[in-house]
């Protein structure tokens, strides 16, 4: 007969300790986002490029790559505004263009940043943690798992409501094709409002104004591109799921990247060894170990801002901007949190140094930082203008020189 072991017995404590240790190891193994720390820039770029090309080919096979609709928006003020919207996957800047060109670059830059963090840790191992050490922390593993599941779930679940309630986008290609068949039979336009479809305010490019949703009486589809030929409903749904999986994955990678860089920087700021950072003359402090990762992180932020601009341009013109998932996606701004430990490190060295010739930020870092800040300000300008156009005037006054440049650059 086996006697029970008391909880405070050494054997019992050893068993619990092993169980806890095994649970932590399991969490670390489940954190697949940490694999991104081991992928080099070229491999990461190729992964992003293969995904982008795969989605491009998939959109063509399914039949959602390129098509347009002509519609008329009738307001309660009896205005009739006709618009032609390109709704295909390839014509949406936050899909075709982003995933084929910019997303692979984003992943490569993240890999360059990881490499910079590894090199810095090798130079100052007593001051900085390795990425392997951070990846083996069970709390970070939990955060990585939660981030991945949240963003994948968020990007897929939102389409369940959008597919049923929206009608302007490549995701709605099959319903639009059905509307075209109905229009061919009845010879009448389709009123999307009467069909129960939901829209937010419509942006009118070039007119500097929105059509508010409470002012919309009807949205009539006048013509649907005859090139729209969807293979089947199931193929469209499968393509939507695959696309949204990739959206959730790259967003999760950016968030996890932000978590690692923030923790890495905070540990470095806490264990800052001023004596070890001095050069052979003792007059200057080595700072490339923190400014080099900051350079790549600013580029990550710049690319993320570019995506947010693309998404706004693509969705505001078809009345589908401002949904909860789009606002949650602003969490991809989080790599900017690396500014916190960077500021602490640089200010500490500034207070400790009497050398007026000490350089804290190189010209290339300052240029990229300025571009990141400008693009971030423009994103805020767009979002605030969408939420309340009257509040946008405050930012216009502050950033008027930049607004014209971005509008010309993006054809807005």
Derived from helix and strand composition plus strand pairing, the structural class reads alpha+beta
Distance between the termini: 80 Å
* Helix amount: 55-70%
Overall 3D geometry?
Answer: elongated
The total beta strand count reads 6
What's the number of domains?
1
User: Order of strands across the widest beta sheet?
Assistant: 2-1-6-3
Biggest sheet features: 4 strands, antiparallel
Radius of gyration from the CA trace? 26 Å
H/E order of the elements? HHEEHHHHEEEEHHHHHHH
Q: Which strand-content bin applies to the residues?
A: 5-15%
Low-confidence stretches: none
Q: Tally the helices: what do you get?
A: 13
**Mean pLDDT, all residues:** 84
In brief:
By secondary structure, the protein is α+β, with helices and mostly antiparallel strands. Helix content is 62%, strand content 8%.
Describe the 3D structure.
62% of the residues lie in helices and 8% in strands. Helix 1 (10-30) crosses helix 5 and helix 7 (233-270) packs parallel to helix 11 (339-352). It starts with 9 loop residues before the first helix and ends with a helix. The chain has helices at 10-30, 41-62, 93-123, 131-135, 138-165, 173-186, 233-270, 274-277, 288-316, 324-328, 339-352, 363-387, 392-410; strands spanning 68-75, 80-86, 190-191, 202-204, 209-211, 216-224. The strands form two sheets. Strands 2-1-6-3 form a four-stranded antiparallel sheet. It is built from 13 helices and six strands. The protein is elongated. With 412 residues, it is an alpha+beta fold. The protein has one domain.
